[in-house]
Amino acid sequence: MSNDSNLANDLRLMNKNLFDGNLQFGAKVFHEKTNRIGLGRPASGGLVPEHAKIVVDTGVERFQRIGEFWEYVDQCPVCSCTKTQFLFTRLGLDIWRCDQCRHGFQNPRINFDKASELYSDDKTAADIYTEPIQKEIDKVKYSYGLSLIDEFNPPSNNKILDFGCGAGVFLEVAKSNGWKQCIGIDANDRYREQYDSELEIQYIYSSFERIDRTILGHDYDCITLWNVLEHLYDPVEIVRELKGMLKNDGLIFIMVPNIDSMASRIIRERSATFNWKHLSHFCAQSLTQLMSTIGLKCIHLETAITEIDNIKSYLSGEFPYGGYGDPNNLFEFITPKYLHENMLGSRLIGVFKNA
Fold first, then answer.
1. 4 Cβ contact list (under 8 Å, min separation 6)
2. Residues 301, 284: contact at Cβ < 8 Å?
3. What is the pTM (predicted TM-score) of this model?
4. Is the N or the C terminus of the chain less surrounded, counting Cβ atoms within 10 Å?
5. Which CATH superfamily hosts domain 3-353?
6. Beta partners for 186?
């Protein structure tokens, strides 16, 4: 590898580390300040309020699913293969993996109507993503994503759609970076008050499955899905529809949890990644296969977010999200560089072209 390539990779690693909460603040501080830890919070090892509406903790035979809210999945959501392997159960959720494309998925899964009800008033997520410290670190993350998008040359910076826009921070950053039309769609009504009309950002409150597609329009230069694809009931069909909304040579930018991350491999059923909202658990193979099936060319793939304190805490025999870390330096070899060079980061980032 040339010196220029090494320098570029080192710079990219440095920039990724800037939006890694474990690295910037330490796990304990980051989890506390972003409402991830504490009673009823996602990193505390128990049920969050939304999850408790579909699973009952009996205290005896624990975490029993409430039958009326669940449906079975008879094939892989990505490649339709029916040969699957059971991985584990977490808090009443069974996680399976496809033998063919290695995609992970929830089976059974919450039915769409119940999930839509929970999403529309998801206080747990809103409490995290509207916290000032989370919004600041998200601005750095989104700036990184926009720099990648620019690097791979969208047709123009005229029109961008953020699918699952949450608190709207990405759209604010896109607007400040010169994107002219910034449009977002999200199913959680708690985010509505986050939008300032003076920023000229169009916010649409809806699930994508139920929206009138004509409202969204066409001719997008870029469509982004930041930690959204894993929530969708039919990812193949929805990404196919998004592709139809792109210009020729338009880009789709995706960030998803990485089932092959070191954190997921080691922490497994104690990992907060495996939660009620994540119907799909992508790996590099299943993500690129899904996009290729639809006719989108993968032009970039990497990982981000180390979860390094969580990993080292667990390997030290402690609760993964308590910030214990590695006080005896037994796991010094686990570095951000090691994780990302081996595609072991907690999130996959992919850029795909409508070529």
1. none
2. yes
3. 0.90
4. N
5. Vaccinia Virus protein VP39 (3.40.50.150)
6. 205
